[in-house]
Amino acid sequence: MQTADLRQRWLDYFAERGHTVVPSASLVSDDPTLMFTVAGMVPFIPYLSGLIPAPYPRATSVQKCIRTLDIEEVGKTTRHGTFFQMAGNFSFGDYFKEQAISFAWELLTKSESEGGLGFEERDLWVTVYEEDDEAIELWKRVAGLPEQRIQRLGKADNYWHTGQPGPGGPCSEIYFDRGAKYGAEGGPAADDSRYLEIWNLVFMQYLLDDVRSKTDFSVVRELPKKNIDTGLGVERVAFLKQGVENMYEIDQVRPVLDRAAEISGRPYGRDHGDDVRMRVVADHVRSALMLMADGVTPSNEGRGYILRRLLRRSVRAMRLLGVDVATFPELFTTSRDAMKAAYPEVEKSYDRIARLAYSEEENFLGTLASGTSILDLAVSKTREEGRRQLPGDTAFLLHDTFGFPIDLTLEMAEEAGLTVDRGAFDALMAEQRNKAKADAKAKKTALADLSVYSDFRALGETVFTGYDYLQTETRVLGIIVDGESVSRAVAGQTAEVILAETSLYAESGGQEADAGTIVGAGFELDVLDVQKPVKGLVSHRVEVRTGEVAVDDAATTIVDPDWRRGATQAHSATHLIHAALRQVLGPDAHQSGSYNKAGYMRLDFGWNQALSPETRSEIEEIANVAIRRDLPVETRVMPLDEAKALGAMALFGEKYGETVRVVDIGGPWSRELCAGTHVSSSAQVGLVNLVSESSVGSTNRRVEALVGIDAFRELATERAIVSQLTSNLKTPREQLPDRIAELLSSLKAAEKRIAEFESAALAQRVPDLAASAVRRGDFSVVKADVGSLGSSDDLRSLVTSVRARLGSDAAVVALAGVVGGKPSVIVAANDAARDRGVKAGPLAKAAAGVLGGGGGGKDDLAQGGGTNAEAIPAALDAVVDGLPN
Ligand code: SER
Questions:
Q1: Predicted model pTM
Q2: The CATH number of 765-881 is which of 3.90.1150.10, 3.40.50.1780, 3.10.310.40, 3.30.70.260?
Q3: Is 617 helix (H, G, I), strand (E, B) or coil?
Q4: Range(s) for CATH 3.30.930.10 in the chain?
Q5: Ligand 1 pocket test: which of 41, 61, 234 has the largest number of ligand atoms within 8 Å of its C-beta?
Q6: CA of 62 relative to ligand 1 center, distance in Å
Q7: 86 touches 78 (CB < 8 A)
Q8: Which CATH class is domain 451-546?
Q9: DSSP 8-state symbol, 432
């Protein structure tokens, strides 16, 4: 059964049963909390949660999905794909459990000739949520499934939500038994590789909130209607039906795998390592193709970064297969041909896809070769030095000079059995960012002689259309190269472009300039920066990527939508945090500066003491509650007086008589004068995570926050750290602080006991040492190497105890030992010895000299140390030789 056939059977089956067939939505999810469409239900979230009435009671779809969480597993298992298709049937308050189970069972077990999927009943197992007795009864009654093939599992397996606040509920999963060859008996609870999950039926009946993990969330309330959300893994069923071993061998994927094998000259199925690489190529090329068809462009952030990672991992896998020339032209066309029947968009936008993919490969191939040899060198050097960690500066060099994403370096280091000094790498990255910012500032002011701008400004203001549009068709008014107005610029040149209108936001009011492109007939310009060198005039600093641009050309400005979404989230988050600050601290906490860009914001405000952790949390909480309340965002343009009368906060010294733009979030809840771009309702901000609070000067504080998906990632990292601690310490999360305090105090107690034992052991050595005294002229002398000791205090107390034990006749004690890896010597003389002219200071100094160091002290007690422990006997002899005759 071909994948396309499977897809059609699915849609036909549910269409015949009253379901509206809904085409697959884009991989780029429009849910602000999700970077990609991760499940078939994502486009239906507003209907499932009851936010918007569903336009149909039942629906069915075969949805494109991307999940990259398990990217490392790709190729190694039968079923991890970064791109996959989920076939689903949905009921919005229409049918529920019984009907969902009955549909699923019928479609699975109906013969292929009757339009079903033709599975044998005896091969199917199900799992249900442990408390769901009703589902068990239904499986028995509706499907006639014997009790022993129904297993109960907990929340980790049989409860479903997207990982974000929203709808969720218990689920029931259907598994196919692949047979004894693939693992142990005992059903899915025992082995989820032999028993392969093929279909998940979710009984959506609750609204969830505070989703902290798969199993840790709060139920807000029951949904107004009970819904059904199911998902069948198309790739999984396809590989079972096609009689192949895994999802990489199905008709839509296998051709790329074969092509990779052919190009490399290594057959598939001979060497496990090579097989995994071919599967990685086949999976990643397809995912990248589908992402680019949905408009994603390789970049260093967000979705673009994920795409870049997929592309670079494919290049690298081909290289590990022994191929170091470009292969994307062949691999991508092969993948396109395998996918175009189901997804015509891959053919329609293939020109763009090819341009992006091929140039990404060209660029990366060049750097991969040199980067890999640098890495290999660093790996052998690290090994030779007996270390297990690659230095952070190597990772940084690879990133900075060779464009190696840090993940790639981490992976390659891991393959060589090493880790990477991540802390040092992050510090270097931060340093570079600060430097780049300073450089950019310097460049911005030195753009060009301002007179060249005023000529253009005289033509009128640049019209900013970007509040309403991401794209704008306009005309080139001027081109500036090296401060001179010129008539054209060609590929490879950097220039400034002045346009009549622009949808690209120029850096101002704390908001970073938009990222994007400017295109026209025969040229493409990459936008590097957008500034207003004089008020009212926007200048686009660009690099001409292809072609030639001339004054008077028609041009279209295109804002990178991902960037802009992030920028609006961050700017609205800045307003939310500002409002929250003032709520908590009072109206004196006035904003003194701010900066925001996709994923990040910071705000400086007048305040002269540090915020307590409680205050920080309160501010963060207020901002997030405002997000959840989904407050409308409204902008109005009005005279300044009017805005002030409304209580809008004027921040940047607006002039009297001007018209200003007022941005409200939730009416007066947050009201500011602001020209920035904002979300249209607060929920679109997603999430704000206040990550730091610090001082800037004596009268200002700074708060910094991550916004949207970046905020989530930061929390996810912290969660991973906590879960590592809980598993290492075998302690539930809530008890971690107590457990760590307990461990520290028992460590302290243990250290104290060790010290007691050590001093008791030292005390026991005193009699023997005293008994070893020999006569030397008038003196009774003890000299000994006492070996390794915990501290020089130990050595000192040993020396004084021995001296005390020697009585009142003239006595000198010289003991040496090794403390903290270094030789140390202490000399003591008693009263009678000093009366006869002995001074401990010079004796210790002489001994220390022999040890290769220095020393000294009082007449009765002195100490010294050095570096050469082997010289201890000679050092002790030097003490004896130094005694008066
Ligand atoms: N949403 C569920 C899943 O992704 C079923 O469609 O598994």
A1: 0.52
A2: 3.10.310.40
A3: helix
A4: 3-249
A5: 41
A6: 12
A7: no
A8: mainly beta
A9: H
